[in-house]
């Protein structure tokens, strides 16, 4: 009876050692796969950050300021009475004044 119990204990111990080695290898494989995925995501994030920085530099280089020192709107976007065609027409821009004279038109006007 003692030898049967001893044999069962030895087989159980060997099974536990085998299974623990098997699961440790699986855990290591999963860890390596996860690490590769994280590294790939980090590279993608770095690439996106570089793209965003390039876009910021591009936007900073554009002349996006006001065309005049003081903005006085002389004619808004929308329907208005046309001084040329004598009727209501769509005005597709905004006109700005400086000292009472139209200096710049940002879009085509009526």
Could you please describe the fold and organization of this structure?
By secondary structure, the protein is α+β, with helices and mostly antiparallel strands. It has 2 domains: 1-64; 72-105, no CATH class. The protein contains 1 helix and 5 strands; from the N terminus they run αβββββ. It has one helix spanning 2-61, and strands at residues 72-75, 78-82, 87-91, 95-98, 101-105. It has a 3-stranded antiparallel beta sheet, with no helix packed on it. The protein has a two-stranded antiparallel ribbon with strand order 2-3. A hairpin with a 4-residue loop joins β2 and β3. The longest helix has 60 residues, at 2-61. It starts with a helix and ends in a 5-residue tail after the last strand. The model has no long low-confidence stretch (mean pLDDT 81).
What's the oligomerization state? single chain
Shape: rod-shaped
Q: SS-based structural class?
A: alpha+beta
Q: Rg, please?
A: 38 Å
| Biggest sheet statistics | 3 strands, antiparallel
Low-confidence stretches: none
Helix content: 40-55%
- As a percent range, the share of strand residues is 15-25%
Element layout with pairings:
Blueprint: H1 2-61, E1 72-75, E2 78-82, E3 87-91, E4 95-98, E5 101-105
Antiparallel strand pairs: 1-4, 2-3, 4-5
Quick rundown:
The protein has one helix and five strands. It is α+β, with helices and mostly antiparallel strands.
Structural features:
alpha+beta; two-stranded antiparallel sheet; 5 strands; 21% strand
């Amino acid at each position: 009876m003692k030898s049967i119990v001893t044999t069962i204990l030895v087989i159980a111990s060997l099974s536990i050692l085998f299974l623990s080695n098997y699961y440790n290898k699986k855990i290591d494989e999963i860890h390596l796969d996860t690490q590769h995925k994280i590294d790939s995501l980090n590279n993608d994030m770095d690439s996106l950050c570089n793209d965003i920085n390039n876009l910021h530099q591009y936007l900073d280089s554009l002349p996006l300021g006001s065309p005049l020192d003081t903005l006085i709107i002389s004619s808004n976007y929308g329907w208005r009475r046309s001084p040329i065609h004598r009727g209501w027409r769509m005005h597709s821009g905004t006109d700005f004044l400086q000292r009472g004279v139209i200096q710049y038109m940002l879009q085509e006007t009526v």
